[in-house]
Amino acid sequence: MKKILFVCTGNTCRSPMAEYIMNSLISQDGLAEEYVAQSAGVSTVDGLGASSGSIYACDIHGIDISSHKSSCIDGGMIEEADLILAMGSSHKSLIQRYFPEESKGKLYTLGEFASLCDSDVYATDISDPYMMDNSVYMKVYEQIEKYINVIIKYLKGRH
User: Fold this and answer.
1) Catalytic residue status for 8
2) Could you say which of 8, 13, 58, 125 is catalytic?
3) Is 117 an annotated catalytic residue?
């Protein structure tokens, strides 16, 4: 099974949304036996719950992330991952700095990888919605979902 690791800062907003969106969509598309998504943060502690805005945005779309607990990224996670998708270029840079060998050839931003999967996609970082209102979380959810749908379409085409 191939592991896709989503990474943001605190692993309470963006990367958990991406993890749960990806796992939900790969399950719907019959790819759950081939891929699994996980998430972690570059600056967090283990065990924090998902932010209320992330829970809200996912719940609106029928995805329950209320049981999510944060994880701080480590070398083992990087080594085990087949693909690492950072929410922003700052996360990508930190991972490259601290795990240069482990992340080589498998680290991209989410937008960057989506644009490699489909040349019509314009790559942007996923903005941090932390402490913003629910409308911002909804926009972030939609941006993450858009990129993940492009990636899943690409993955399905490879089978």
Assistant:
1) yes
2) 8
3) no
Number of neighbouring beta carbons within 10 Å of residue 103: 22
128 noted as active-site residue: yes
Helix (H) or strand (E) holding 83: strand 83-86
pLDDT for 159 = 56
User: What gap in Å lies between CA 151 and CA 74, rounded to an integer?
Assistant: 25
Q: How far apart are the first and last CA of the chain?
A: 14
Q: Which of 15, 35, 26 is nearest to 109 (CA)?
A: 15
Give the mean pLDDT of the chain: 96
Q: Is the pLDDT of residue 28 over 80?
A: yes
Which residue type does 50 have? A
Model pLDDT for residues 77-121, shown as the tens digit of each residue? 999 999 999 999 999 999 999 999 999 999 999 999 999 999 999
Q: Which of 79, 98, 111, 103 is nearest to 14 (CA)?
A: 111
**Residue type for position 73:** I
